[in-house]
Amino acid sequence: MPPISELMMFAGLLVVAGAVAGLLAGVFGIGGGAVLVPVFYQVFGVAGVDPAVIMHLAVGTSTAIIVPTSIRSFTAHRKRGAVDTDLLKGWIVAVPLGAVLAAVVASHASSEMLRLIFAVIALVLAARMAFLSNRFHLGSELPGEPARFVVGTVFGLISGLMGIGGGVLNNTFMTLYGRPIHQAVATSAGVGVLISIPGLLGYIWAGWGDEGLPVASTGFVNWIAFALIIPIAMVVTPYGARLAHAMSKRQLETGFSLFLLFVSLRFFYSLYG
């Protein structure tokens, strides 16, 4: 049993992470998983959780937290009329399908390989947002079917395996086809809803009955961590959405590219640091 002071320190870290995750959910239309997963990994390690399930528990719990934060973020953005509801309707099967597939393969996938892929993609996207935001586009209209269905499924799969809300991928996808960054951010909140709900159920199913799980866990979701973070994240998220709409297009793009760079470096460090 770790010292009380150590547990208090990590509890405080969880609270701070909840605030940051909520702010990111509102500003960038993401679920905050890129912040929460590594924090959960550390906390569960200190708590003595079986190393064989720590990463799965971190991703599953992050996915659970994305459910209410993405719903709250989506509601805040939708009130401003910025959401592309047609795209979300077209992905109502594809994105959840990808999230369910992620839960199925999560216990067999190499976390190192997934982190490497994510780090590389995030670095490329950060460079694109920072330096080619107004000069590089794939077209003026989003792809039609079946390409759009495939994209949605892939987004759901990658996001589900990493415990993120899909905003990182969807923001770039939409802006590559000339959509305004504010619309991309708002729509990404809806994508987070489509990913997180089936993802949550999938991670509960995937970890059901695992003997290495800590107390207050249902499958690969720990409700103590959920309870510590979710209240503050829910309070902060609408302020992030308000901030997003107060920023200029370039400011939002710059902030998003810096966020992607941070995420990329963090994953590289976890692999080679």
Automatic annotation (TrEMBL):
<feature type="transmembrane region" description="Helical">
    <location>
        <begin position="185"/>
        <end position="208"/>
    </location>
</feature>
<dbReference type="GO" id="GO:0005886">
    <property type="term" value="C:plasma membrane"/>
</dbReference>
<feature type="transmembrane region" description="Helical">
    <location>
        <begin position="220"/>
        <end position="240"/>
    </location>
</feature>
<dbReference type="InterPro" id="IPR002781">
    <property type="entry name" value="TM_pro_TauE-like"/>
</dbReference>
<keyword id="KW-0472">Membrane</keyword>
<dbReference type="Pfam" id="PF01925">
    <property type="entry name" value="TauE"/>
</dbReference>
<feature type="transmembrane region" description="Helical">
    <location>
        <begin position="91"/>
        <end position="109"/>
    </location>
</feature>
<keyword id="KW-0812">Transmembrane</keyword>
<protein>
    <recommendedName>
        <fullName>Probable membrane transporter protein</fullName>
    </recommendedName>
</protein>
<keyword id="KW-1133">Transmembrane helix</keyword>
<feature type="transmembrane region" description="Helical">
    <location>
        <begin position="12"/>
        <end position="41"/>
    </location>
</feature>
<comment type="similarity">
    <text>Belongs to the 4-toluene sulfonate uptake permease (TSUP) (TC 2.A.102) family.</text>
</comment>
<feature type="transmembrane region" description="Helical">
    <location>
        <begin position="149"/>
        <end position="173"/>
    </location>
</feature>
<keyword id="KW-1003">Cell membrane</keyword>
<feature type="transmembrane region" description="Helical">
    <location>
        <begin position="116"/>
        <end position="137"/>
    </location>
</feature>
<feature type="transmembrane region" description="Helical">
    <location>
        <begin position="252"/>
        <end position="272"/>
    </location>
</feature>
<feature type="transmembrane region" description="Helical">
    <location>
        <begin position="53"/>
        <end position="71"/>
    </location>
</feature>
